[in-house]
Amino acid sequence: MSHFLMPTIDIYNLENYTFGTKDAQHEKDKSVPERLARMKDKYFKEGMRRSVDCILLVHQHGHPHILLLQIGNNQKGFFKLPGGRCRPGESEADCIKRKLTKRLAPPNAKEYQPDWEVGECVSVWYRPNFETLFYPYTPPHITKPKECKKLYVIPLPEKCMFAVPRNFHFLAVPLFELYDNSKRYGPIISSIPQVLSHFNFNQL
């Protein structure tokens, strides 16, 4: 009888990492309708939008945590994974490194820039229409989804320095807090505990 060998991810204590701030980075759009309108315009120019989201793992108090960006206050804040849109012709790996560097790396300090490692793609989501809804599959009646979003695990080095834009909060949220909590975190982030369930976590 064969046994499934689960892949292992090394994760380090949150205390290993240094967190600082840098200049604010504002969203290009002031509202969701503006964002969807811009997406529609780009779709007709460039085709389906490709985007990547990054899962950064640490541990604290013996539990795996995910690093999330939060915009706004604790009660009504919007949570998101680091990442964003791939440029036309840009590989997903290059996009991940560019987006993580822009959002989280210390500015003007190459010696402190993390050497981002791109791990496994663990989840794929599709936006069928120019709406906020995503699905972890392409609905049967949709022949041309408007966006494909892929979630990648990004193994962190043992130590590194993060610099977070001043208008964001950078939070370590335990996996058990995300599970079945789409009301708070949305369907994509709340699905992460399930998509990571085939990994072993080696807490160092």
UniProtKB/TrEMBL annotation:
UniProt-listed InterPro entries: Cleav_polyA_spec_factor_su5, NUDIX_hydrolase-like_dom_sf, NUDIX_hydrolase_dom
Top-rank lineage group of the source organism: Eukaryota
Keywords: Cytoplasm, mRNA processing, Nucleus, RNA-binding
PANTHER family: PRE-MRNA CLEAVAGE FACTOR IM, 25KD SUBUNIT
Localization terms from the record: Nucleus; Cytoplasm
Transmembrane region(s): none
Record text on subunit structure and interactions: Homodimer (via N- and C-terminus); binds RNA as homodimer. Component of the cleavage factor Im (CFIm) complex.
Classification lineage: Eukaryota, Discoba, Heterolobosea, Tetramitia, Eutetramitia
Domain Nudix hydrolase: 48-178
A GO molecular-function descriptor: mRNA binding
Family listed: Belongs to the Nudix hydrolase family. CPSF5 subfamily.
Primary location recorded for the protein, binned into one broad class: nucleus
Pfam families: NUDIX_2 (PF13869)
One of the protein's GO biological processes: mRNA 3'-end processing
Name of the protein in question: Cleavage and polyadenylation specificity factor subunit 5
GO cellular component entries: cytoplasm; mRNA cleavage factor complex
PROSITE patterns attached to this UniProt entry: NUDIX
Its biological purpose: Component of the cleavage factor Im (CFIm) complex that functions as an activator of the pre-mRNA 3'-end cleavage and polyadenylation processing required for the maturation of pre-mRNA into functional mRNAs. CFIm contributes to the recruitment of multiprotein complexes on specific sequences on the pre-mRNA 3'-end, so called cleavage and polyadenylation signals (pA signals). Most pre-mRNAs contain multiple pA signals, resulting in alternative cleavage and polyadenylation (APA) producing mRNAs with variable 3'-end formation.
